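User: Structure tokens for both sequences below?

Assistant:
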Amino acid sequence: MKRYEFFGHTADIAVKAYGGSLKELFTSSALAMFSILVSKKQNRPETILKEVIIKKTEEALEDLVKAWLDELLFYFSSQCLILHRIKSLDICEGALEAKVLFETFDKDYFQTGQEIKAVTYHELKVERIRNKWQAHIIFDV
């Protein structure tokens, strides 16, 4: 199963993220966002990772996806940290708790992509279709 796909959208970037579980869906949405922000030129011989614990609580799944992506975007924008790996991710009854490993942006190993100004509420939708989860997300670039 593909993790995400991009769609044309006027002046923004739209993505559909997929997952067999909410954990996979949230992971796919994060991977999609970082694929817009950066691409890897080459592997580092030695990577220093920073572990961050992210906790969010929201009533609606759409709000939880947005809060999750907003937090990841904050670390990228404010500290130049790039998602390396999601160590753990638990989602239960409107609450999310994750341990995320970030690495520092280095122009020798990464190329910048498009700047994301914001994760928007415009057309934001999370739904379960048969036995799979799907999210429609629009990033303001």
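Moving on to the next sequence.
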Amino acid sequence: MSAKRPVFLDLWRIKLPATGIVSILHRVSGLLMIAAVPVAAALLALSLAGPEGFAAVAALLEHWLAKVALVVLAWSLAHHLFAGIRHLFLDIGIGLDRPVARTSARAAITVAVAAVLIGGGVILL
């Protein structure tokens, strides 16, 4: 066992391929959506409690930080959808070749960002 092993890993210097980035972002986007469910349920309950609650939620959602959070959640949904479709194709054996896998990973990232840029204008208005 004379294999040279790194003393430490400098995570900022590691260059992940597009496939690794998509895989990590797929997990992150899933966690973001799961974390958003209780917040969305609480806001829904507050908005249904009466006119005052509805007004409070509407005012909260008009704040710029809430709009940014909605755009992040929209990206999360779009990325999780497109990366999930990509993973399903990989599971059935389509796109396993390295060049095709790289292309599909870049496409998943690009399409998710494009969907958010197109739909994000609606959220920010």
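User: Anything stand out in the second?

Assistant: The two ends are 61 Å apart (CA to CA).
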